[in-house]
Design brief:
Elements: H1 7-10, H2 18-31, H3 35-43, H4 50-57, H5 63-81, H6 92-103, H7 106-116, H8 124-136, E1 141-144, E2 148-151, H9 155-169, H10 177-191, H11 194-218, H12 229-238, H13 246-249, H14 253-260, H15 273-292
Antiparallel strand pairs: 1-2
Length: about 300
């Protein structure tokens, strides 16, 4: 008899919504961490206080949303100090920390959990559970107990782009600049700050350029060490690679040049998380293809 899929499997992707955060925080609580301890690990060497954190959000979010966040955090502390019910008690400090963890930007929540889990000896078990939570809720990340959240894309992107690219960079011939650039792009995406997203786009494109150079080296095709992406691809075409693959191989270059590769001038680069995810996925496809060209 065929077992019917449960509701969780049929639900649309939720992202890091309240339910997903509750599940991930429960993993942290079972390790023995309190909300205050989780937030303390996140704040350490970054922020001196709640007010310092809120000040850092200025320019990254509108004033209204920051004001609402501060009000929510303060209200949580007051409610814990003067509980209206006889339910389980929580200290004001933990209540404030928990409310902030539930409402902070997703990039900061990922960083808080990524910093916390490696502090515990049995880190691999919670890492596996967090990865399972991400898969169950359609969150496009997996969790590694050493590097924290790593972008995988949705199920289709993971299967057709990210996994083949990870397999390609495990090849010793791609283990230098290609792997370094691609791993860096994934880490910058997970960090998720405006500066990191711009770096993600830059590193993703650099990974493709590095891959083209490796392929040219192993096919013994001469090229200028300082060549940019287009001349590198042209050199590949000269060695018999079909021209019609150009847009696929070079797909990350235009976003890199416009969003992450050159100085922005008076206006800083503004790269959305969706743009960075797309550029990283496109670079993964290019790397997987370039790997097939190695002799």
């Amino acid at each position: 008899m065929q077992v019917a899929e449960d509701t969780a499997a049929l639900r649309p992707a939720t992202g890091l919504d309240a339910g997903a955060r509750q599940l991930i925080l429960q993993v942290a609580f079972e390790l023995g961490a309190s909300p205050s301890q989780i937030l303390g690990v996140f704040f350490r060497d970054r922020f001196g206080s709640y007010e310092d954190y809120f000040a850092a959000l200025n320019g990254l979010a509108d004033e209204g949303s920051i004001w609402h966040l501060k009000r929510q955090v303060d209200s949580a502390g007051i409610d814990a100090q003067f509980p209206a019910t006889l339910g389980p008690s929580i200290s004001p400090d933990d209540a404030r920390a928990l409310r902030l963890l539930m409402l902070m930007p997703a990039r900061d929540f990922r960083t808080a959990i990524s910093d916390l889990v490696p502090l515990y000896e049995r880190a691999s078990e919670p890492a596996d559970r967090i990865t399972n939570i991400c898969r169950a809720r359609g969150i496009p990340y997996e969790f590694d107990h050493t590097h924290g959240f790593q972008f995988t894309g949705d199920a289709e992107v993971e299967a057709r782009a990210i996994r083949p690219a990870l397999s390609a960079i495990s090849d010793a011939r791609f283990a230098g600049g290609v792997k370094s650039n691609f791993d860096s792009a994934r880490e910058e995406l997970a960090e998720g700050t405006p500066a990191a997203l711009s770096k993600c786009v830059h590193q993703a494109a650099c990974a493709v350029e590095s891959a083209m150079k490796v392929v040219l080296d192993h096919r013994k095709v001469a090229y200028d060490e300082h060549a940019t992406a287009q001349p590198l691809f042209d050199a590949l075409v000269g060695d018999g690679i079909p021209r019609h693959m150009e847009k696929i191989v070079l797909s990350a270059m235009t976003p890199r040049n416009r969003r992450g590769g050159h100085g922005p001038g008076a206006v800083p680069h503004d790269v959305s998380e969706q743009e960075a995810q797309t550029v990283l996925a496109s670079s993964a496809v290019a790397i997987a293809y370039l790997h097939t060209l190695l002799p």
